[in-house]
Amino acid sequence: MKIKVLTIFPEMFSSVLSSSILGRARENGLIDVELIDIRAYSARKHKNTDDEPYGGGAGMVMLAQPIIDAMRAAMGEGFSGRRIYMSPRGSTLTQSAVRRLAKENELILLCGHYEGVDQRAIDSVIDEELSIGDYILTGGELAAMVVIDSVSRMLPGVLGSSESAEEESFSDGLLEYPQYTRPAEYEGMKVPEVLLNGNHAEIKAWRRRESLTATLRARPELLEKAALTKKEREFIGKLSEKECEPKTNQY
Question: What is the CATH architecture assignment of 185-244?
Protein backbone atom coordinates (compact mmCIF):
# COMPACT_ATOMS: atom_id res chain seq x y z
CA MET A 1 0.00 0.00 0.00
CA LYS A 2 1.10 3.54 -0.74
CA ILE A 3 0.49 6.16 1.92
CA LYS A 4 1.32 9.82 1.37
CA VAL A 5 1.19 12.38 4.15
CA LEU A 6 0.76 16.11 3.58
CA THR A 7 2.23 17.95 6.55
CA ILE A 8 4.20 21.04 7.56
CA PHE A 9 6.16 18.95 10.08
CA PRO A 10 7.48 15.88 8.19
CA GLU A 11 10.28 15.43 10.73
CA MET A 12 7.71 14.25 13.30
CA PHE A 13 7.29 10.92 11.48
CA SER A 14 10.90 9.74 11.28
CA SER A 15 11.11 7.65 14.47
CA VAL A 16 7.61 6.19 14.16
CA LEU A 17 8.08 5.04 10.57
CA SER A 18 11.54 3.59 11.13
CA SER A 19 10.82 1.57 14.28
CA SER A 20 9.22 -1.75 15.19
CA ILE A 21 6.53 -3.23 12.95
CA LEU A 22 6.18 -0.20 10.69
CA GLY A 23 9.92 -0.05 10.15
CA ARG A 24 10.06 -3.71 9.12
CA ALA A 25 7.00 -3.35 6.92
CA ARG A 26 8.66 -0.51 5.03
CA GLU A 27 11.93 -2.40 4.72
CA ASN A 28 10.06 -5.39 3.29
CA GLY A 29 8.16 -3.25 0.81
CA LEU A 30 4.76 -3.96 2.34
CA ILE A 31 3.99 -0.28 2.83
CA ASP A 32 5.40 2.76 1.08
CA VAL A 33 5.09 5.99 3.07
CA GLU A 34 5.98 9.30 1.47
CA LEU A 35 6.09 12.56 3.45
CA ILE A 36 5.21 15.69 1.50
CA ASP A 37 6.03 19.10 2.96
CA ILE A 38 3.12 21.44 2.28
CA ARG A 39 5.40 24.46 2.70
CA ALA A 40 7.24 23.57 -0.49
CA TYR A 41 4.05 24.25 -2.46
CA SER A 42 3.27 27.66 -0.98
CA ALA A 43 3.15 30.41 -3.58
CA ARG A 44 3.93 33.05 -0.96
CA LYS A 45 7.33 34.67 -0.72
CA HIS A 46 8.15 33.30 2.74
CA LYS A 47 6.53 29.90 2.11
CA ASN A 48 4.02 30.39 4.90
CA THR A 49 0.97 28.14 4.91
CA ASP A 50 -1.48 30.05 7.13
CA ASP A 51 -3.28 33.37 7.46
CA GLU A 52 -5.86 35.12 9.63
CA PRO A 53 -9.44 33.85 9.31
CA TYR A 54 -12.05 35.91 7.51
CA GLY A 55 -14.68 37.14 9.92
CA GLY A 56 -12.22 37.45 12.77
CA GLY A 57 -11.45 35.06 15.57
CA ALA A 58 -8.44 33.65 17.37
CA GLY A 59 -5.69 31.68 15.68
CA MET A 60 -4.74 31.10 12.08
CA VAL A 61 -6.19 29.03 9.23
CA MET A 62 -4.17 26.95 6.77
CA LEU A 63 -4.22 28.29 3.23
CA ALA A 64 -6.11 26.49 0.48
CA GLN A 65 -3.54 27.08 -2.27
CA PRO A 66 -0.53 25.13 -0.94
CA ILE A 67 -2.74 22.28 0.24
CA ILE A 68 -4.52 21.93 -3.09
CA ASP A 69 -1.26 22.09 -5.06
CA ALA A 70 0.44 19.61 -2.73
CA MET A 71 -2.51 17.24 -3.03
CA ARG A 72 -2.51 17.42 -6.81
CA ALA A 73 1.20 16.68 -6.87
CA ALA A 74 0.69 13.75 -4.48
CA MET A 75 -2.08 12.32 -6.62
CA GLY A 76 -0.09 12.42 -9.84
CA GLU A 77 -1.61 10.53 -12.76
CA GLY A 78 -4.18 7.78 -12.28
CA PHE A 79 -4.63 8.15 -8.54
CA SER A 80 -6.82 5.41 -7.07
CA GLY A 81 -7.45 5.72 -3.37
CA ARG A 82 -8.83 7.92 -0.59
CA ARG A 83 -7.86 11.48 0.35
CA ILE A 84 -8.38 11.97 4.06
CA TYR A 85 -8.23 15.08 6.21
CA MET A 86 -7.39 14.32 9.85
CA SER A 87 -9.95 16.50 11.59
CA PRO A 88 -11.65 16.59 15.02
CA ARG A 89 -14.99 17.03 13.24
CA GLY A 90 -14.53 13.90 11.14
CA SER A 91 -16.12 10.51 11.65
CA THR A 92 -14.45 8.46 14.37
CA LEU A 93 -11.80 5.94 13.38
CA THR A 94 -13.04 2.45 14.25
CA GLN A 95 -11.75 -1.02 13.46
CA SER A 96 -14.33 -1.36 10.70
CA ALA A 97 -13.05 1.90 9.20
CA VAL A 98 -9.51 0.57 9.46
CA ARG A 99 -10.51 -2.56 7.54
CA ARG A 100 -12.16 -0.43 4.88
CA LEU A 101 -9.10 1.78 4.44
CA ALA A 102 -6.79 -1.24 4.33
CA LYS A 103 -8.53 -2.32 1.13
CA GLU A 104 -7.50 0.86 -0.69
CA ASN A 105 -4.55 0.95 -3.07
CA GLU A 106 -3.40 4.32 -1.82
CA LEU A 107 -4.13 6.78 0.97
CA ILE A 108 -3.27 10.45 1.16
CA LEU A 109 -3.51 11.93 4.66
CA LEU A 110 -3.74 15.68 5.19
CA CYS A 111 -2.52 16.93 8.56
CA GLY A 112 -4.16 20.17 9.60
CA HIS A 113 -2.83 22.73 12.09
CA TYR A 114 -3.79 25.91 13.88
CA GLU A 115 -7.55 26.57 13.77
CA GLY A 116 -8.10 24.32 10.80
CA VAL A 117 -7.99 24.31 7.01
CA ASP A 118 -9.62 26.66 4.50
CA GLN A 119 -12.89 24.93 3.62
CA ARG A 120 -12.20 25.37 -0.09
CA ALA A 121 -9.30 22.94 0.16
CA ILE A 122 -11.53 20.38 1.86
CA ASP A 123 -14.24 20.83 -0.74
CA SER A 124 -11.76 20.51 -3.62
CA VAL A 125 -9.40 17.67 -2.76
CA ILE A 126 -10.70 15.73 0.27
CA ASP A 127 -12.86 12.59 0.16
CA GLU A 128 -13.51 12.25 3.88
CA GLU A 129 -12.65 13.71 7.26
CA LEU A 130 -11.47 11.36 9.98
CA SER A 131 -11.00 11.78 13.73
CA ILE A 132 -9.22 9.48 16.20
CA GLY A 133 -11.32 10.64 19.14
CA ASP A 134 -13.26 13.39 20.84
CA TYR A 135 -10.35 15.57 21.90
CA ILE A 136 -8.16 18.24 20.35
CA LEU A 137 -4.55 17.76 19.23
CA THR A 138 -2.09 20.46 18.24
CA GLY A 139 -2.07 19.06 14.72
CA GLY A 140 -3.06 16.14 12.55
CA GLU A 141 0.35 14.45 12.54
CA LEU A 142 -0.25 12.22 15.56
CA ALA A 143 -3.66 11.27 14.20
CA ALA A 144 -2.10 10.39 10.83
CA MET A 145 0.42 8.16 12.61
CA VAL A 146 -2.44 6.31 14.29
CA VAL A 147 -4.11 5.73 10.92
CA ILE A 148 -0.87 4.52 9.33
CA ASP A 149 -0.18 2.12 12.19
CA SER A 150 -3.69 0.71 12.46
CA VAL A 151 -4.17 0.29 8.71
CA SER A 152 -0.73 -1.22 8.15
CA ARG A 153 -1.42 -3.95 10.71
CA MET A 154 -4.28 -5.20 8.54
CA LEU A 155 -2.11 -5.69 5.46
CA PRO A 156 -0.96 -9.24 4.62
CA GLY A 157 2.52 -10.00 5.93
CA VAL A 158 2.88 -6.98 8.21
CA LEU A 159 2.23 -8.84 11.47
CA GLY A 160 4.22 -11.91 12.40
CA SER A 161 1.08 -14.03 12.77
CA SER A 162 -1.78 -14.00 10.31
CA GLU A 163 -4.15 -14.50 13.25
CA SER A 164 -2.90 -11.56 15.33
CA ALA A 165 -4.90 -8.81 13.66
CA GLU A 166 -8.15 -10.75 13.94
CA GLU A 167 -7.74 -11.79 17.59
CA GLU A 168 -7.06 -8.37 19.07
CA SER A 169 -9.43 -5.91 20.69
CA PHE A 170 -12.32 -4.73 18.49
CA SER A 171 -11.63 -7.35 15.79
CA ASP A 172 -15.04 -8.90 16.49
CA GLY A 173 -16.54 -5.85 18.15
CA LEU A 174 -15.37 -6.81 21.64
CA LEU A 175 -12.39 -6.04 23.84
CA GLU A 176 -9.61 -8.59 24.02
CA TYR A 177 -9.35 -11.23 26.73
CA PRO A 178 -6.49 -11.13 29.31
CA GLN A 179 -3.10 -12.45 28.19
CA TYR A 180 -0.47 -14.32 30.24
CA THR A 181 3.03 -15.68 29.70
CA ARG A 182 5.76 -17.43 31.75
CA PRO A 183 6.18 -18.04 34.63
CA ALA A 184 2.94 -19.78 35.58
CA GLU A 185 3.12 -18.16 39.03
CA TYR A 186 4.63 -14.82 40.01
CA GLU A 187 4.51 -13.32 43.51
CA GLY A 188 1.60 -15.56 44.36
CA MET A 189 -0.37 -14.62 41.24
CA LYS A 190 -1.21 -17.66 39.10
CA VAL A 191 -2.10 -18.02 35.45
CA PRO A 192 -5.66 -19.36 35.08
CA GLU A 193 -5.53 -23.14 35.09
CA VAL A 194 -7.58 -23.41 31.89
CA LEU A 195 -4.72 -21.88 29.91
CA LEU A 196 -2.32 -24.56 31.11
CA ASN A 197 -4.33 -27.71 30.39
CA GLY A 198 -3.87 -27.73 26.60
CA ASN A 199 -7.61 -28.09 25.90
CA HIS A 200 -8.09 -25.68 23.03
CA ALA A 201 -11.89 -25.81 23.13
CA GLU A 202 -11.94 -24.87 26.81
CA ILE A 203 -9.35 -22.15 26.22
CA LYS A 204 -11.40 -20.68 23.39
CA ALA A 205 -14.55 -20.69 25.52
CA TRP A 206 -12.71 -19.09 28.47
CA ARG A 207 -11.27 -16.36 26.25
CA ARG A 208 -14.69 -15.59 24.82
CA ARG A 209 -16.21 -15.27 28.29
CA GLU A 210 -13.35 -13.04 29.45
CA SER A 211 -13.72 -10.91 26.35
CA LEU A 212 -17.43 -10.45 27.05
CA THR A 213 -16.69 -9.63 30.68
CA ALA A 214 -14.02 -7.06 29.82
CA THR A 215 -16.30 -5.40 27.28
CA LEU A 216 -19.23 -5.23 29.69
CA ARG A 217 -17.10 -3.57 32.35
CA ALA A 218 -15.13 -1.13 30.20
CA ARG A 219 -17.12 -0.52 26.99
CA PRO A 220 -20.68 -1.86 27.46
CA GLU A 221 -21.95 0.12 24.46
CA LEU A 222 -19.96 -2.18 22.17
CA LEU A 223 -22.15 -5.14 23.14
CA GLU A 224 -25.15 -3.54 21.44
CA LYS A 225 -23.62 -4.06 17.99
CA ALA A 226 -21.66 -7.25 18.66
CA ALA A 227 -22.75 -10.54 17.09
CA LEU A 228 -23.65 -12.61 20.15
CA THR A 229 -25.31 -15.97 20.62
CA LYS A 230 -28.32 -16.48 22.86
CA LYS A 231 -26.13 -18.13 25.50
CA GLU A 232 -23.68 -15.24 25.40
CA ARG A 233 -26.47 -12.73 25.93
CA GLU A 234 -27.72 -14.79 28.86
CA PHE A 235 -24.18 -14.84 30.26
CA ILE A 236 -23.96 -11.05 29.94
CA GLY A 237 -27.36 -10.67 31.61
CA LYS A 238 -26.30 -12.71 34.62
CA LEU A 239 -22.98 -10.91 34.78
CA SER A 240 -24.73 -7.53 34.62
CA GLU A 241 -26.98 -8.51 37.52
CA LYS A 242 -23.95 -9.55 39.53
CA GLU A 243 -22.14 -6.31 38.72
CA CYS A 244 -25.16 -4.34 39.94
CA GLU A 245 -25.30 -6.11 43.30
CA PRO A 246 -24.47 -3.72 46.16
CA LYS A 247 -20.96 -4.09 47.49
CA THR A 248 -20.68 -4.66 51.22
CA ASN A 249 -17.65 -3.78 53.29
CA GLN A 250 -15.99 -6.69 55.00
CA TYR A 251 -14.12 -6.18 58.26
Answer: Orthogonal Bundle (1.10)
